[in-house]
């Protein structure tokens, strides 16, 4: 996955402000005391851009932002050196509330609906991405699809961008994922539940998950990565198949861990690393992010420390 054009563009249709509430002993239906609160710009593509920024390749964020909440995102783009090609729409981006209970290591998500996207805004987005494809060789289409957007959009964009010679990664779920895989993106990253929904059956263990990932790869998708939370991730490509298990780490927030994995995979593959190295490096990067709240990459020395502790297991051909 080494495009000839150096830039990476992330596309976020449903950007969000992630409000994280630290609430020890959180109990539904009871009065709970919040001991700390943070607000960070988010949305899956925004997070991937933030994790990739500062590397060797220019990073651009595209998609939609609510004009009223745009300053929070603009501050992140300025701080990280991310090129801003997001389209502004009237209103505010959605808020996702994350209730973190460190006593039980549990995170409760309350995700609000996003902006409604008019048809003319979708046309403007397509025009923007066509222009960006002239100078950028890798596109990341990630996150949920808001109201007014057809579930086929990621599939259409994948076909359009690949026809222009770009490499395309997709990280979404449900019907948008089902349609997207028909367009054969270069890389997809479902989690285990999303993969179950895609194949229409329970996947009872890692072996069944691996077989489903292999089937997805055999359908024409170059790299399939299935995130398994604390149990690591499975990586399947033409180079083989691996399971990577991260070491135990302190968890401040799991929000954005999957996006850190996507960013780690892309950075490693774009640098030309083989699948085993890619799996080890991206797993260490995602594990390091867990100690941070918001789209904050772990320090390089912390990633190097975790790299040695990632356990790698080759998967057979069955």
UniProtKB/TrEMBL annotation:
CDD domains: FruK_PfkB_like. GO terms for biological process: carbohydrate catabolic process; small molecule metabolic process. Keywords: ATP-binding, Kinase, Nucleotide-binding, Transferase. The keyword Kinase applies. One of its GO terms (cellular component) is cytosol. GO terms for molecular function: 1-phosphofructokinase activity; ATP binding. InterPro entries: 1-PFruKinase, Carboh/pur_kinase_PfkB_CS, PfkB_dom, Ribokinase-like, Tagatose/fructose_Pkinase. Its EC number is 2.7.1.56. Belongs to the carbohydrate kinase PfkB family. This is 1-phosphofructokinase. It catalyses: beta-D-fructose 1-phosphate + ATP = beta-D-fructose 1,6-bisphosphate + ADP + H(+). Catalyzes the ATP-dependent phosphorylation of fructose-l-phosphate to fructose-l,6-bisphosphate. The lineage of its organism: Bacteria, Pseudomonadati, Myxococcota, Myxococcia, Myxococcales. Residues 15-301 form the Carbohydrate kinase PfkB domain.
């Amino acid at each position: 996955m080494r495009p000839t054009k150096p830039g990476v563009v992330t596309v976020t249709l449903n950007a969000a402000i992630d409000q994280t509430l630290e609430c020890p002993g959180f109990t539904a239906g009871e009065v709970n005391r919040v001991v700390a609160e943070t607000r960070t710009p988010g949305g899956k593509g925004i997070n991937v851009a933030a994790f990739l920024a500062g590397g060797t390749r220019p990073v651009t964020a595209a998609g939609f932002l609510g004009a009223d909440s745009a300053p929070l995102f603009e501050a992140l783009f300025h701080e990280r050196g991310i090129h801003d090609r997001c389209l502004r729409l009237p209103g505010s981006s959605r808020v996702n509330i994350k209730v973190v209970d460190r006593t039980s290591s549990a995170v409760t998500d309350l995700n609000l609906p996003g902006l409604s996207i008019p048809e003319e805004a979708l046309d403007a987005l397509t025009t923007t991405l066509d222009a960006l494809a002239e100078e950028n060789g890798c596109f990341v289409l990630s996150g949920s699809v808001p109201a007014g957007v057809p579930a086929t959009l990621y599939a259409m964009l994948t076909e359009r961008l690949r026809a222009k010679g770009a490499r395309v990664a997709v990280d979404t779920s449900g019907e948008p994922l089902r349609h997207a895989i028909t367009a054969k993106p270069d890389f997809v990253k479902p989690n285990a539940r999303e993969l179950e929904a895609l194949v229409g059956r329970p996947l009872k263990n890692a072996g069944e998950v691996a077989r489903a990932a292999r089937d997805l790869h055999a359908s024409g998708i170059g790299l399939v990565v299935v995130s398994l939370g604390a149990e690591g991730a499975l990586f399947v490509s033409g180079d083989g198949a691996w399971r990577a298990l991260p070491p135990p780490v302190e968890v401040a927030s799991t929000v954005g861990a999957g996006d850190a994995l996507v960013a780690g995979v892309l950075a490693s593959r774009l640098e030309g690393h083989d699948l085993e190295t890619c799996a080890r490096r991206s797993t260490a990067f995602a594990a390091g992010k867990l100690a941070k709240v918001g789209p904050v990459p772990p320090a390089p020395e912390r990633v190097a420390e975790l790299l040695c502790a990632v356990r790698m297991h080759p998967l057979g051909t069955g």
